[in-house]
Amino acid sequence: MIKVDAMGQACPMPVVMANKALKERRQGEAVEVHVDNEIAVENLKRMAAKQNLECKVEAAGEAHYVLTLRGADTAPEEAVCVPKAEGNLVVAVDSKTMGNGSEELGAILMKGFLFALTQQEQLPRTLLFYNGGAHIPTEGSVSLEDLKALESRGVEILTCGTCLDFYGLKDKLAVGGVTNMYSIVEILSKASHVIKP
Fold this sequence. Notes:
Blueprint: E1 2-5, H1 13-24, E2 31-35, H2 38-50, E3 54-61, E4 64-70, H3 77-80, E5 89-93, H4 103-118, E6 126-129, H5 144-152, E7 156-160, H6 161-166, E8 177-179, H7 181-190, E9 193-195
Parallel strand pairs: 1-2, 5-6, 5-9, 6-7, 7-8
Antiparallel strand pairs: 2-4, 3-4
């Protein structure tokens, strides 16, 4: 049995770690995942259902859950993966945060979203950053490592030059290139799918 210690790990790390272990296991081997919150439990149960895996959940103590995943050894690779995006996928980011409400939570969610992008089998063709999103690809950003990983895998990363000027960030761009509104409109209009976190 492969044991995965995801205690203290925030979303989406428990799912990422479990998926890695599932890919590395031998035929018939189970994966045991340890987590410390119910959100991680629910996310792992959903992942198991999508992959046709048996999922047994046990409470091992206060804020300690153990999920045992087994089965689906003969399922083809495509059956266990997130469906691939087809065509020209563009991610458009217009804020430092994701969603409305707490800015602190929104920043955590945006960091998690960008990390989760690095774990996808099919990557977006382009990431566009504009307005408040222009802060993300600059020096000091908590997401720089993830953006550099995406760029190294061929994802085009572009930030609005007007936005960088407005926020005084022109000299602090740390990954990708500078673009303009004409190009942003062109990229969005040619996209087969646009995701806006």
